[in-house]
Design a protein that fits this description.
The structure holds two protein chains of two kinds. Chain A is mainly alpha-helical. Chain A has helices at residues 2-58, 61-95, 101-126, 131-184, 191-228, 237-269. The radius of gyration of chain B is 59 Å and the shape is elongated. In chain B, 33% of the residues lie in helices and 0% in strands. The longest helix of chain B has 24 residues, at 36-59. The chains are: A mainly alpha, B mainly alpha. At the A-B interface, helix 1, helix 2, helix 4 and helix 6 of A face helix 2 of B.
Chain lengths: 273, 128
């Protein structure tokens, strides 16, 4: 029995202590890779602009070839950058503790779809032979970019919401413990003190309800972000994302207020009067 | 023998010109004719003002002199002594206290807008 308990504790230590920092290190490594690819993209973009300007100025065959080569390099690096960013989102998604499994699966499918598009696009870039070809291939990414952007913003919103939900889960556990403490020790306190404790519980519950109402609003808006992917949609995903961020801030404040009230309740439980 | 003026002989010299002496203007001595009722009225007005002044002066209340009162030192309200409850030392309450503090720190440190997640800004149209 003791041996089983020891094995169980060791496994728990392994999963919650050894793996958690590694997951965090993975997202940090992904972030460093993303920053590196972004630097490369900026350099390639600058070179592309210089070559393009020279081609516009001189209109020679040499300048055209140089411009085409710089364009192909920039377009390839652009795809690599976007793929590296999607990898970063994937790592952050894995780290977020409060996301529902169904939502996580959905966001990961979005990442896979976009990765597939970018892989196909990168293949097309390698076959570009002229500036006109480059424009045609680039136009494919331009046409698809709204969908890509909508997917990115959905995932970012989902990650933030998941992180906040993780905190709310801890809040709910603490509230259940506080309720149990108040209920078990009901006979110790005077009726006036007991009613004070009950009022604190009510206030905390109210804040939790307000938080939940805000989360429901946020989920509706994230669903609207899904619709904004459509080419027929008039919804501006960046504006909608701004609203979602604001609502997340309000939800966080409700959770903070409820936690503050919980601290007051704990303080009151320490004294008879 | 009468003194006869000999009109045929011209005078030897013209008579000297004597400037005229300025004559001081003469003013008429006018007397001020104030009617007697007016004088009586003026005297009455003056007497009325004097009477009013004396009445106000004599009927004025004396100034209130406030005797200085001794200052009372403020006594702070004594803080009621709070008695510890048996729950205060229970491990469940201590654990809850620690969890609430940890949660509060977690919510305060919650990053609403993670800068690492900001999408990259890229230029899309080639511009050819």
């Amino acid at each position: 029995m003791k041996l089983r308990l020891l094995v169980l504790l060791s496994l728990t230590l392994f999963f919650y202590v050894l793996l958690a920092p590694k997951a965090h290190a993975t997202s940090q490594q992904a972030y460093q890779d993303y920053l590196y690819q972004f630097d490369l993209y900026r350099q390639d973009h600058n070179n592309f602009k210089v070559a393009q300007n020279e081609y516009f100025k001189f209109q020679t065959l040499t300048s055209q070839q140089t411009a085409l080569s710089a364009t192909i390099t920039m377009m390839a690096q652009r795809d690599v950058l976007l793929k590296t960013y999607l990898l970063l989102l994937n790592e952050k998604l894995n780290e977020s503790t409060g996301i529902l499994p169904s939502d996580r699966t959905y966001y990961q499918s979005l990442i896979q779809n976009e990765n597939l598009f970018l892989t196909n696009h990168a293949t097309l870039v390698t076959s570009v032979a002229s500036i006109q070809d480059a424009m045609n291939v680039s136009r494919q990414l331009e046409d698809h970019y709204k969908v890509l952007q909508g997917s990115e913003l959905q995932i970012i919103s989902g990650i933030s919401l998941g992180n906040l939900t993780g905190l709310a889960n801890i809040f709910d556990k603490n509230l259940a413990d506080a309720r149990a403490l108040v209920s078990i020790n009901r006979g110790i306190f005077s009726s006036a003190k007991q009613s004070l404790l009950d009022r604190w519980i009510l206030q905390i519950t109210n804040k939790r309800s307000l938080y939940q109402a805000k989360i429901d609003d946020i989920n509706v808006k994230i669903a609207q972000l899904k619709v904004s992917n459509s080419s027929f949609s008039n919804i501006d995903p960046t504006l909608l994302y701004g609203t979602i961020k604001q609502e997340l801030g309000n939800a966080r404040q409700y959770l903070l207020d409820g936690t503050s009230f919980m601290g007051e309740l704990v303080n009151e439980l320490k004294y008879l009067n | 023998m009468t003194n006869e003026i000999n009109y045929t002989d011209p005078p030897a010299e013209p008579p000297p010109l004597i400037p005229e002496m300025p004559v001081a203007p003469v003013y008429e001595n006018k007397k001020m004719n104030i009617p007697k009722p007016m004088i009586a009225l003026l005297i009455l007005v003056v007497l009325a003002f004097a009477a009013t002044f004396l009445f106000v002066k004599l009927t004025a209340k004396p100034a209130i002199v406030v005797a200085p009162s001794p200052t009372i030192a403020a006594r702070p309200t004594p803080t009621p002594e709070r008695l510890l409850s048996p729950v205060a030392t229970q491990s469940a309450l201590l654990a809850l206290d620690a969890h609430v503090a940890s949660l509060s720190a977690g919510i305060n440190n919650f990053i609403l807008d993670d800068p690492q997640l900001t999408p990259p800004v890229i230029e899309l149209p080639l511009g050819f």
